[in-house]
Structure formats: C-alpha cells, structure tokens
Amino acid sequence: MNDDLAYYAEPGPLTKGAKELPSDIRELLAAVQDRLVHEPGHPDHPTGHLRRAEEILAHPDRPLLGSCRHFTLLVVVALRAHGIPARARCGFATYFVPGWHIDHWVAEYWHDGAWRLADAQLHPSLIADLGIDFDPVDVPRTGFHVAGTTWLQYRSGDLDPHRCGIEGPDTHGPWWIASNLIRDTAALSKLELLPWDVWGAMPGPTDPITEDLTTLLDNLATLTTNPETAADSRTLYPTESVKVPEKVFNFLRGSTELVDLDA
C-alpha cells in the first residue's frame, strides 16, 4: 500500500470508530441504510447537524435522520476502521432529477486496484423509484461528478451552472459549484464537514468569483477530478482560502460553530 492509500486507510478527526460495521461494501451499505434515513426535513432536524461519526453512531434514534454526507461519512469511517482506503467526495449527482446536477456526497473507496464510488443513500426502494440501472457500490463517474469535474465543465462552457445545486432560489450556480469544490478538497484532507458549513473563500450567491479565486479553483479542480491525483490536492489544502478553520458558519442555523479539528 503506497503512502496515499495508507493515508486514506487511517481515520481522521471526524471518522473514528465504527469497527462494528461490516467491511464488505454491500453489507456495509445495507447496515448504513438501517441506521440512517434521508428525508426532506433533515436540515431542520438536530441530527442533521451532527459532524462526527461517533455522535451519529452513538445516537439512540434508529434510523437517524441525516443527509447524504451522513451516509457517506459512515461508509468512510467503517472502511477506514477495517484498514480499507476510503474518502468522502462532494459533488453533484445526475441520477436524482433529470437535467440537473444535484448537490450530493458519495464515498470513494479502493477496491481491486482502483478507486470506485459507492452511494449508500441508494436504498433498493429508491433505486427502483428512480429507475437506476447501475450498481450502487460502483457508481459510474458519468452519474456522480466530483465538484472539480463540474467546475471544469462549467469553465469550458459545457454545463449550465444554474442546473447545478438544488432546485430553488439562490441554491445553484457558479458559487455553489465553487463552494462544493472547497468542501471536496477539505474532505480529501479528511475534514468532511456538513454540506452547509461555510468557511474561507466560499462565495455567496451574489458574491463575485475573483480572478485569484478562479485560478485557485482551476488548480483544485485539475487535481481533484482524477482520482489518481486527488490526494495531491493536500498540497493546496493549507491555503487560507481552503483550510478549515477552528470555527465555521453553519448556513442553515445562521450561527458560527466550533469544529474540534484535533479530536
């Protein structure tokens, strides 16, 4: 196992524990689906704001109301607990709403000499409802685009940025793609924050994306799009615009919150 794989086989600050979950990827997805449920009201529920895997696993609610990031985090923490390289990826899925790239998180894990994508939110009933024809433990990269891929498609003029994010006012556009790219970069450095945590250079819906920020995002996207070079984004993670600070802004709660990065 090379150094990059070894790095992703070890837990991070938010991904400790979970040896009780299975290491087999199919069994793991089923176990996570037994523990979590994704419903439209999850951002308004207190459990939707749990950042740490230990908090999610220890919570008495079963199933626990959570986001796609919660599903992803439990897959990542379990695989790392069993010594399997895994990392959370933030980006956009094309299989939820036709014509849209919907804000989403999946797990990327090492299997048979390659990085593969697994979507733990794809319960068999949801697969049937959506008419999905791929295996949720091997999601095609045409179905889920890491944020860097979406950014480069937008920059090349091949993608309408206002079909990227979530349907609704001010919940899509270049700013959303840029923010997800910063979240994905942080996750590649094992800081898998909430989908609505805001920090650093993440722009708002009306904020201009400056030339300097565009250059940084182009560089991040070039590294993170290819799973073989994604780990190299760690060299840019310490940049002040990207690095997770001790406190972040929880957009949904409208509050600044402490993130214990050393736990």
Q: What sequence of helices (H) and strands (E) makes up the elements? A: HHEHEHEEEHEHEHEHEE
Q: By helix and strand content, what is the structural category?
A: alpha+beta
Question: Could you tell me the number of beta strands?
Answer: 10
Mean pLDDT: 95
Taking the alpha carbons of the first and last residues, their distance comes to 26 Å
DSSP strand content = 15-25%
Query: What does the overall shape look like?
Result: globular
How would a crystallographer describe the biggest sheet? 5 strands, mixed
Task: Tell me the radius of gyration.
Answer: 17 Å
Give keywords:
five-stranded mixed β-sheet, three-stranded antiparallel β-sheet, 8 helices, globular
Architecture overview:
This protein is α+β, with helices and mostly antiparallel strands. It is 32% helix and 16% strand. The chain is built from eight helices and ten strands. Strand 9 and strand 10 form a beta hairpin. Helix 6 packs across helix 8 and helix 7 crosses helix 8. The chain is globular. It starts with a helix and ends in a 5-residue tail after the last strand. The mean pLDDT is 95.
Question: In brief, what are we looking at here?
Answer:
With 263 residues, the chain is α+β, with helices and mostly antiparallel strands. It has eight helices and ten strands. The chain has one domain (3-258).
